[in-house]
Amino acid sequence: MRFSLASVLLSVAWLACAHSNSVTTYAPLPSTASGPPVNSEGFRVQSFGEGAYMLADGIYQSLFFVTPKSVIMIDAPPTTGENILAGIRSVTHLPISHLVYSHHHADHIGAAYLLANKDVTIIAHELTAYELSLTPDAHRPPPHVTFKDSYTLRVDNQTIQLDYKGPVHDPGNIFIYAPKQKVLMVIDIVFPGWVPFASLAEAQNPTMFIKAHDLILEYDFDYYIGGHVDRAGVRKDVLIQQDYIQDVYNNARTAILLSNSPPNATNPLSASTILGPIEAANPDNAWAMFAGYVDTLAQYCANVTTEKWLGKLGGADVYTYSHCEALVESLRIDYGVLGPFGVQPS
C-alpha cells in the first residue's frame, strides 16, 4: 500500500493536534511562496530545457539530466522515495548511470539505496564521503568517486560542474552547475519565497552561510534549485534572501550593542536590566543568566526583522527568531561583537 507525502503530513498534523490543546496559527503565506502543485502521485517534474529536469514533491527537490544513453541523478530525497524513479520514467526509460550527492544529510540523499546498483557511479565531495563514514547508513551508500576542489562530470551531451567553496551548510556541501541550461543547485542555502529553515538552515558555519549568497551570485544562472519547498528560484530570490539575512545580521548586532549601553527608558536591552531579575531568581546560575540574555536579544532582533518581512517571505514569523539566535551567538564568537562580555574600558 502506497501513501502520498500529503497523506503522511496530514497524519502527522492530526497527531500533533490530538496531543495538543492549541495549535499555533501563523500569518498567511505570500503568493510568492507557492509553486505549482504536485500530481496525484505526489510529485512534479519541471523541464529547464536541453535535458535538465527538477523533480519536486512539495517539500523537497532533486534534479536530473537526460543524455542520449542514460540519466544523471542529483540527490535522492527520501520524501520523494519511489517517486524518483516514477518521475524519471515520466520523461525517459533510460537507465541511471550517475548519482551525485549534494552533501551527506539523510533528508536529501536517504533514498540513494533505491537507485544504487553496480551500474550507477556515485559522486560526492571527499568531505561528504568522510561524514558518511562516521555514521554508516545502508540507505546512503558511500561514493565511488570523490574530489577536493572541483570536478567536471561529462556524460554524452551533458556537462555538470561540481565545485566546493567551503562549509556553506555542512562540510562537503557543493555547488552543482549546468552551464548549458544555466541551472545552479546549492542545497539548504536559499529557499525561494521563504525564509530559511531553522537556525540558518542548520548551518554549521554561519559566516560561510552568509558568504554563500555572494558565491551563488557569481554564477550565471537562470534557474536556482535550493532543495526545498514548492518552486525553483531565480536570481531575484537569492538577492531577496540576502537582504533578509543582512537585516537579521544588522538587528542582531544592534541588539548586542544596545546591551552594552547604560539602561534608560528607551533601552530595555541594557545588560543590567536583563540580567538583574534573572540573577535574583537564579542565584549563581550562570547558564540561566546567559540564556536569558541571548533570548532577550534574539527576541528583539526577531521582532524588528519580522515586522519588515512578514508578508514578503513565507515563514518569517516561524523561523526568524531561530536565525536571530544563531546570529547573536555567531556575532559574539565569530565576529567578536561581545557587547558587555568583551573587555570594558576602564
Please characterize this protein's 3D structure.
This protein has about 350 residues and is α/β, with parallel strands linked by helices. It has 2 domains: about 25-235, Ribonuclease Z/Hydroxyacylglutathione hydrolase-like (Metallo-beta-lactamase, Chain A), CATH 3.60.15.10; about 245-340, no CATH class. About 35% of the residues lie in helices and about 15% in strands. The chain is built from 10 helices and 12 strands. It has helices spanning about 5-20, 85-90, 105-110, 125-135, 200, 205-215, 235-260, 270-280, 285-310, 315-335; strands at about 45-50, 50-55, 60-65, 70-75, 95-100, 120-125, 145, 150-155, 160-165, 175-180, 185, 225. The chain has a 7-stranded mixed β-sheet with strand order 1-2-3-4-5-6-7. α9 packs across α10. It is elongated. The model is unreliable at about 1-20 (pLDDT under 50). This is Metallo-beta-lactamase domain-containing protein. InterPro entries: Metallo-B-lactamas, NDM-1-like, RibonucZ/Hydroxyglut_hydro. Keywords: Signal.
Index terms:
346 residues; alpha/beta; Metallo-beta-lactamase, Chain A; 2 domains; 7-stranded mixed sheet; 5-stranded mixed sheet; 10 helices; elongated; disordered N terminus
Q: What are the SSEs and their pairings?
A:
Elements: H1 5-18, E1 44-49, E2 52-56, E3 61-66, E4 71-74, H2 83-89, E5 96-100, H3 106-109, E6 121-125, H4 126-134, E7 145-147, E8 150-155, E9 158-163, E10 175-178, E11 183-185, H5 198-202, H6 206-217, E12 223-225, H7 235-259, H8 271-281, H9 286-309, H10 316-333
Parallel strand pairs: 4-5, 5-6, 6-7, 11-12
Antiparallel strand pairs: 1-2, 2-3, 3-4, 8-9, 9-10, 10-11
Helix pairs in contact: 6-7, 7-9, 7-10, 8-9, 9-10
